[in-house]
Amino acid sequence: MHRKHLAGAATALLLAAMPFGRAHADATDAQLDRIVDEGLRHSQAMANASELVDGIGPRLTNSENFDRATQWALGKFKGYGLADAHLEPYDFGLGWNLDSWDARVIQPRAIVMRSIPVAWSPATGGTITAPVILAPISKKEQFDKWRGKLAGKIVMISLPGEASQTDKPQFRRYEDKDFAAMDQYKLPADETMPYAEGNKGDLFPLELSRFLKQEGAVAMVRKAYRDNGLVYGEGYLYQPGNALALPFVELASEDYRRLARLEVAGKPPVIALSVAARFNDRDLTADNVIADIPGSDPKGGYVMAGAHFDSWIAADGATDDGVPSVLMIEAARIIQSLGVKPKRTIRFALWSGEEEAFTGSTAYIEQHLAHRPTAPNLSPLDYFAQWTGAFPIEKKPGYDELKAYFNLDNGAGKIRGIYAENNGGAAELLGKWLKPFASMGAGNVVMGRTGGTDHEYMQSIGLPAFEFIQDPLDYSSRVHHSNLDTLDHAPPDDVRQAATVLAAMLWQAANSDEVLPRPPLPTAPSKSDPFKVEDPDKE
Ligand SMILES: [Zn+2]
């Protein structure tokens, strides 16, 4: 038995964890051992991750950097011998390329501020220098108060707020009590309520920028939503005809509050902003990257794993979701190293548009899996809102072909298990596939649901789609979407563990005699409480 060759703790732990000396289903334990050896002792994940996030950098959907990254990924998939590596375009919206930016105080003294333009902001066309005015505006009803006061100003539209003092550790790993809390059956929300709220908030900057421009303001700035020098730059106005009317820059809270204090004290600072950015309104499509390891059984269907390839712009999009995207490529490489064909095809997907309401994975569903009848010509965010509540769901031929989907989008922490999404039958099989990796910390299967990423829509149409549980590290506390999102926040040991577990899960799912049970095709739900009367003020 070759197991003796695998020196070190991992092997010992794996041997100890593997009950009955055999992995579950058709994947042999020898194959799993080779996956472990390749993934832990011959990893190429960090080298590839550096090429992507250090070399190519942030990948806003439909930006030139995103396109550079897709060519890079196609090259990697082809290089590892995958079949049919290709791009799948769909209608998205404007492209936007950020070349350089700067924000600094000129008076009362020179200060370089921590800043980021809001995605899809117009360029400044050189440097705009002007005094600021603190004018917190969060809804249309507040416009009148500022009429006639904004001409020639840079408008600070956020409330300064109070500085936060956090005593919580920024970095952590899950403990058993955390899994217990996740292991709760989550009653489905009342899906009869349309998904309306989000849209208004994301579109308000458009109305505001038009009002400020009309009042003669020259630019607008907002405060970052966290302290400690963090900036983000999330913006959603990528629809042609709906572009911002004024340059829009986000400042770190500490820089923003300094301006606010000086302004309130009656000495409005003079600041200089420059944003060099270019729109692309010629090609309004965005791409998903798809590649396959073909299976031997033409009737076996396929299993798929995915991560989103797009990112925000404040740093390199390393942990969200660059490294997990590289883990797709690494898992493909590891499986290819076995030199054995799986029974079912294994498909890898690198989605675009996840940050803009899952446009890429939704497009894949509509192209391959199922159709939901939304009204025509909706704005992207209204489409997103309607799509999740549109019935009946019409299955496409590919619907029954997809036997399992695994998503990675919780940062770069090691895999600790998986959310079974209220699917008890699936929990058992997922548990069997993860068991050999329990000693690597990956054996937790919890009944709870998780959302906010690309598996959610596959779940919403009744497909067996799951998101892995990953150690939080400092992902949600400070790295998620921020100017800290660099490869420094991806511990190499976590990365190679996650690649190994992902490859093993895919290999077992692709070769298993059993398939993951799935709920019935969802139909239009009835009200969870038929006697509930909706509050008209909330509409
Ligand atoms: Zn993400």
General description of the model:
The protein folds into two domains: 3-93 and 284-511, Zn peptidases (Aminopeptidase, 3-Layer(aba) Sandwich); 97-176 and 198-279, Glucose Oxidase, domain 1. The chain is 31% helix and 19% strand. The radius of gyration is 25 Å and the shape is globular. The chain has helices spanning 9-17, 29-41, 45-56, 64-79, 176-182, 197-214, 253-264, 318-336, 359-369, 380-387, 424-434, 455-460, 475-479, 492-511, and strands spanning 83-91, 95-107, 111-112, 115-117, 127-134, 154-156, 219-223, 248-251, 270-280, 285-293, 302-308, 345-351, 370-371, 394-395, 402-407, 415-419, 444-446, 465-470. With 539 residues, it is an alpha/beta fold. The chain contains 14 helices and 18 strands. The strands form three sheets. It has an eight-stranded mixed sheet with strand order 1-10-12-11-15-18-16-17, with helices on both faces. An eight-stranded mixed sheet has the order 3-2-9-5-6-7-8-4, with helices on both faces. It binds zinc ion. The site of zinc ion has 6 residues, from helix 8.
